[in-house]
Sulfotransferase (Aphanothece hegewaldii CCALA 016), 301 residues
Amino acid sequence: MLPNFLIIGATKSGTTSLYHYLKQHPQIYMSPIKEPRFFASPTENNSVNAPEIPWLKNNLNEWIQDLTSYQALFQNVKDEVAIGEASVMYLFSFFAPTRIKHHIPNVKLIAILRHPVERAYSNFLHAIRDGQETIQCFKLALDAEPERIQAGESPLFFYQYKGFYYRYLKKYFQLFDREQIQIHLYEDFQNHPQKTLSSIFQFLDVDSNFVPDTSTKYQVTGFPKNTSVQKLIRLSKPIRQAIRPLLPEKLRDYLYFSIQNNNLEKPQMSPEIRLQLIETYREDILSLQDLIQRDLSHWLK
């Protein structure tokens, strides 16, 4: 069995929260692995010599690389109507659109798009939070990005690159009917989560009156107030796995993310960097608003 809907992005745009909220709906089955990344796999059909790319060489175990393993993620589907997964790498993957079209041509696609400048900064803070970013200055990290891309480092560090939404989405609109694609803005999801979810439920042909618990906020980013606490949070995975049978998933998530979120602070982005990035994205934003038929003029301010 294959999914009949995919959340394709964008990174740092609420997709983890969306995954958990959709998972609560009795008519929706979500992959037990949030991000299988199967359709973006660089090893499918030997399209890329992955071991030559340093980041991939060390992280291939995080990808579902064959169709049988991917189908196994959905083997426990019972009578659910909507079957899905959420791999944000699909949005900017060179391979994903055509592979998705080949395997599941009638799939429904969902994307949440965040102001690209805010998304880039949140992405940077995420890397800082998890102790993966060694450059503590956002401007210097942006300056280092082209070299990192060239060196085959993790896409986690491609802060600016991942914000050219029109560049990536146009391929999906070329391959799939517009009726198969639903685009939401992050600010709508943040400010009116139930309204956004109801729209998604209608799109997926499930009960749109269902109201999930949206009190837990997932993957909040920022600089750790206490690095020792943050290090303990990062190393707590074995503990969380040990208590898995003892506590309901929603309670586990609430406790974990509450502790993490309360240990974070978000410094303001430099106004100069913000203006610089807005100009970088300007043409893409103007093209995007025509593509998705939404006014995005507030993204240019």
Strands lie at 5-9, 28-30, 82-86, 108-113, 181-185, 223-224, 264-265. Residues 5-215+282-300 form a domain with the Rossmann fold fold (CATH 3.40.50.300). Residues 12 and 119 are 6 Å apart (CA to CA). The longest strand covers residues 108-113.
